[in-house]
Write a structure and sequence with these properties.
167 residues; mainly alpha; 0% strand
Length: 167
């Protein structure tokens, strides 16, 4: 089962990078070259991998929530597009929430009393958890959260831009 969790996490991350590179080579290369210090703890056990996975899901959820708060004009400006395909944007967002929920659930098995481990039953629960998440349990985690949010916002923007340009 642990390989399935890792595969889900890698697939989520890789799909974002693949979409970014496919949609805009210059921006895709910028994403690939971002300085990321990474998770502040060693990822040597399944428990540590799952903890990092849950935190990444919550940070990505936070970026997704922020994009949903934008009106159409704000989203057009953020994505740098003239026309908006709101149906495509909604489909991409819904699909992302479903993947985030599945990944979070997989990484939450047997995680009682570990960091970032409240149980979620639905996308609505995950949305609430992501909205409240800061990752600020230590200075190192706070630094990671800030950098990770920036990366996830850029990947999300590329995915949404592709949804607009290729509905």
């Amino acid at each position: 089962m642990q390989w399935l969790r890792m595969a889900s996490i890698i697939l989520l991350w890789a799909s974002g990078c693949r979409v970014a590179v496919a949609s805009d080579t210059a921006n895709g290369l910028a994403l690939a070259n971002l300085e990321r210090s990474g998770w502040p703890e060693a990822l040597t056990t399944q428990t540590s991998i799952d903890t990092a996975s849950r935190a990444e899901v919550l940070i990505f959820g936070k970026a997704l929530l922020a994009s949903e708060a934008l009106d159409e004009a704000g989203l057009k400006q953020r994505l740098g597009v003239q026309q908006m395909q709101l149906k495509s944007i909604r489909q991409v967002r819904d699909g992302l929430w479903d993947r985030l929920l599945n990944t979070y659930r997989n990484a939450s098995q047997n995680c009682d009393e570990q960091a970032f481990c409240p149980r979620v039953r639905s996308v609505a629960d995950l949305r609430q958890l992501a909205a409240a998440f800061t990752g600020d349990i230590s200075p190192a985690h706070a630094e990671w959260a800030s950098k990770s949010l920036d990366v996830h916002e850029r990947v999300l923007d590329e995915q949404l831009r592709v949804a607009v340009l290729r509905p």
